[in-house]
Amino acid sequence: MTYAAGVLVLTALVGLFAGAPLSLIHRRVGYAATLVASGLLVVAAILVLTGGPVTAISWSGVIGEPESIRLDGLSAFFALTAGIVWIGTSAFSLDYDQHSSSRLAVAYSLTLGSIAIVLTSTNFLVFLAGWEAMTLASYWMILEATGRPNRIFSAAFVFLAFGEASSLLIAVAIAAFYAVSGSFGMMATSIAGPLTSLVFVAALLGFGLKMGIAPFHMSEWLPIAHSSAPSNASAVLSATLTLAGVYGLFRMLTLLPEGPSWWGGLLLIIGAVSALLGALFAAVSEHAKGLPAYSTIENNGLILVALGIALIARVEDLPTLFTFALFAAFFQALAHAITKATLFLCAGYIERSTGTVDLNRVRGRPKAGNAAASGAILVATLSLAAGPPLAGFVSEWMILEALFQSFRFSVPALQFLGLLAGAAVALAAGLVVVAMVKFLGFSVLWKPVVTDRAPRRWGLGAPMAALAAVIVGLGVLSPWILQFLTPAASTLAGYSLTAPVSGLLAIPNGWSIVSGSPFGIVSPPALAIALVAGLVPALAYFALGGSPKARRTPVWASGRPPNSIEATYTSFGYSTGMRIMLRGLLGTREIRQRAGPAVSAEIATPEAYNVELEVLDVFKVFYDSLARFGLWFAEGLKRAVMPGRIGRYLAYILVVVLLVIIYTALFF
Amino acid sequence: MSAPLPEVGDPPPRARERSLTYVDADRSLALRTDYESRETLLERPAQLTVEEIGILELWQTTEGHPHRIPVGESVEGYGVFTFPYGPVTMGVPESGAFDLRTYGERVLEIVPEVGYKHRGVAAALVGRSVPDALLRVERFAGNFSASHGAAFLRAVEIAEGIGVPESELWTRALAQELQRVYNHLHLIARVAEAASQNVGVAQAHALAEESLRLTARTFGHRWAFGALASENPLRRLGPDDRRALGSRLRELDREFASLWELFLSSRTFIDRIQSTATVSRADALRWGAVGPTLRASGVAWDDRLRAPTPPYTDLFVPLAQEGSGDALARVLVRQEEVRSSLLLLDQILDRWSSMRGGESAPPAPVEPGRGIARLEAPSGDLVYDVRISDGRVRSVGVRTPSQANWPLFALGMRGGVFTDFHFALESFGLVFADTDG
Q1: Residues A473, A479, A484, A488, Cα dihedral to 10°
Q2: Residue pair B179/B324 in contact by the 8 Å Cβ criterion
Q3: Which pTM does this prediction carry?
Q4: Which has the closest alpha carbon to B112: B194, B30, B23, B41?
Q5: Which residue range is the domain that position A636 belongs to?
Q6: Residue of B75, B101, B109, B411 to mutate when probing chain A, most A C-beta within 10 A
Q7: Structural domain tally of chain A?
Q8: What is the mean pLDDT of residues B99-112?
C-alpha cells in the first residue's frame, strides 16, 4: 500500500513534468500527460490520507541534509485538492487551448510540476527551488497569454515582481528558521525562540503575497485581468498557485510553536481586510476573469480568518473551537480551489463561445450552446455565493460559526477583533452575492436577444460539469469529507483530532457538522435530502401528466415593440449603485469628456460627451507610485554613477567592494 | 377585408400624421414630433418668438438662445445604456415615454418621447364655429381646460375685435383660479406621494377633491368644461352661490395652511425634494422655462403681472418666487400660488357686485383676422395663435406650458438618480396631454 502510494507520487511528478517535452509532439499529448499524472496524484493523496504518510524517495542534499519526496497528511490534502483541479483544467485544456504553438502547454505543465515539487518536498531548499520554478513557469504562462507574438509584458512583470518579493520574504523566513533550528528540514520538530515571530511574519507576508491577500492583492487580479490570461492558466494561477501559498503557510505553522495570540490577531486583520476588499472589487468588476480573481482574494482572506481564529483558540486553550476553525480553514481551501477552478473554466467557456470577457457584452449567449456549461456556471457561482448545500455554503457557514464564537476568548481586544472580523466577513459574503449574481445573471440567466446558437462544445462542457459535480458532492457529503480530512488537520495541530461531526435530533450521527458543543449545527446531507424530497411531489406531478401552471406571453417592453429596443441593462449598470454608495471605499469618480460639436451660433446640436465611471484601488496607486519611484531612482543612479566616465564608475565599484568587506568583517 | 391589427408598440393610428407643428413656425417655440422616427425636436425659428419677446422685455437680450432642445442620445461611455421607460408602465401616469441614458443608477441624459397622447386637437378645430371649437379646446388637457378655453376665446376676440362683457372676464378668472388651486394641490399631493407622505397625501388629495367639487358646484362640471360659455345654464354665480363659495374657499385656505405645516414638519419630504432636479436661472432663461418652473429659478415673470388682462388689472396679484430652482423651490412656488389664488378668488368674489358693467375692448390684432393671446395657466405661460374668418376657425397654433418646460426637465434630471424621476416629473407639472394636443 505504502509502496504503491510512493510509486504513484513519483509517477505523478514525472508525469507532470513529462507534459512539457510531450507538448512538443502536440499540445494535446502534453495535456493528456498532465491529466493522467494529476489523476495519479489524487489517488496517491487518497492513499496517504487513509493509510498514513509516504516517503517516495529520499536522498542526501547538497549541504548534507536529507531531502525527500514525501506526502504526509497535510501535503496529501493539498495534493488532493490541486490534483482534482488539475484533472479538470487539463481535460478542459485539451479542447480549449487552440494556440498555434505549444508553448502555453509547456509552461502549463512546468507550472503544475513545480507546484507538485513545492507540495511534496521535505526540505526548505528543495521547497524554495520548487517555489522559484513555480514563479518562473507561471510567469511564462502569463506571457503566453495572448498566444500572439505581441505579449503583454506589463501584467506579467507585475506578477514576476510580486512573485520575487514573495520568494525573498520566504527566503528570509527560511533563513530565520534555519538560524533557530539549524536545519532546513520541513518535517523537523517545532522551533522556539525570539526569532519565531520573525519567521511567522515573513512567512505570512511571503506566502500571503502568493495568496493575493491585501495589501498585495494586485498580484492576484492584475495578471489575470489585464493580460486576459487563458482560462486554463488563470484557473491554475488562481486556484492552485494561491493554494501553494496556503500550503506554505500551513506547513510553516506545523513547525512553529503555539506563539503569542497576536499572530492569530494579525491573521484575522489581514484576512478580514482581504475578504472585504476582494468582495468589494469583485462586485464592481465586469471582467469575466477579473471577477473570479477578485473573489480569490476574498476566499483566501477567509482562509486566513479561519486560521486566525484557530491560532487564537489554541493560545486561549479552547480545543473545540480550535478544531472547528482549523477544519473550517481546510474545507475553505478545498472548496475554494475547486469552485474557483470551475468558475475560471466557465469564464473560458464564455470567452470561447461569445468572443468576449466583458460581462456587459456576454448577454446570455453561452446558454444557447451547452447545458453542461450552463449548469457548471450555475453551480460554481451559487457555491461561491454560499448557496446551500454546496461546498461554498459549508465553508462559509463554518467560518462565520467560528467567528461567532470569538466571545469565548478571554482577552476583550481579541473578542472585539473577532467581532469586527465577523462583520467584515459577513459584509464580504453579501458583496460576493452581488458579484456572483452578476456573473450568473449576465451569462446564463439572461434571456438571449440574439438567437444564434453557439456550437455545442462538450470537450469544454464535460470537465466543467465534472468539477461542478465535485462541488455538489463536496457540499452534500461535507461531514464525511471533514472526517476524511482529519489526518491533514491533525498534522497541523500536532496531535490527533476528531472531525467536528455529530448528529442531532432526527439526523443520524455523523451527518451533521457541529461547532462548539454544540453551538451551531448544520447538516448538508439532510438539507440536500430535504431539497430533493421537496422536488419529488413536483416531479411526480409532471410525471403523471400534470402541466405547469404557467402562462407564456411575449416580453412586455413598456408597450414598445420587444425587438426594437435592446433591453440592455448592462452588468456595469447592475453594480453602479455600489460604486456610488461605496464611493468612499472605491474612490469612484466620473470622468466626463466632450466628444461632440459645441453650441453653434445658429443651431445647438445635442452636446455629445463621453463619460466613464472609474473605481480606484488605493493600493494600486501606491504600487504605481512605488514603481515610478523605482524607475526614477534607477535612472538617477544610472546618470550619477555611469555617465560614461570610467573614473567615476571605478570609484563606485571601489566603494561597493569596501562596503562589502567592512560588512563581512563586522558580522562574520 | 379588414385592416391589419396594429402591432404592440405601434403609435396609435391617429398619431401617424407626420410632423405636426403646434404653433406657426414663424411665431413661437414649436415642439415637433416626428411620428415615423419617434423623434422629439424642439426648435426655435430665427425670428423673435412670443417667449423671446417676454425675455427681451425682462432682460433686454435674447443672446445665447439655442434653437433646439438639449435632448438626444449623445452620451457614450463604458457600460452606458438606454433604459426605456414607458409608454405603458408603472409610474408614468399618462401615455408618454422616456429614454434614459445611464450607466446604472445615475441619469446621464433623459429623452422625453412625446406623441403617444396626440389627438390632433388643433387640426380638429379648423373649420369649426367658435362655440364648437371651444368644446374641443377645453378638452385639450382636462385639468387646464379653463386656461385653454380662456386663451382661445381671448385670441378669437382679439382676431375679431369684439368686446366682451366684464362679467365674462371675471367668470373666466374665477374658473382659472379655481383650477389653479386644484392643479397645484394635485401636484403637491403627487410629489408628496412619491415621498410616501401618506397622511399629507390623503389630505392634499381631499383638498384637491374639494376644489374640484367647488368647481362642479359653480360651473356644473368638475373640470370646468363649459364654464366659459356664457349661455351655459349650469353656471351658478348668484349672490348666494358666491357667498357660499367664498366661505368654503376660506375654509380650504385654513385647511391648506395647516396641511402645509404638516408637510414642512416632515424632514424626509423636504430632504428628498431639496436640490433634486435643479434648474439654474441661466438655464431657465436660456431654454425658455415658463410658469412655476421659471419663478422657482428666481425669475419674476408671471403673465398675470407682466401682461395682465382684465380683471387682473384691477386685482392684487402676489408674486410667488423662489431662487434655488430645485423641486423644493417649485413645490414652494406652487404652495404660495395656492394661497395667492385663494386670495385672488376672495378678491374676485368680494368685488363681484362692484364690477363695472359694459364691455371690455380687446387690444388690436397683429394682423386682421389673427389673434395671439397669452395667459398664465397653472403650469405657466400658455399661447394661442388663432386665425379666424367668417366666424370659422381657419388655423390654431398652441404653445403650452408643458411643451416649454420639457427641456428644463431634461436638463434638471441630468446627474440625478432613477428615484429622482417622479419628484422631477411632478414638480415640473408636465402633462403629456397638454404637450401632445
Answers
A1: 110
A2: no
A3: 0.83
A4: B41
A5: 618-667
A6: B75
A7: 4
A8: 84
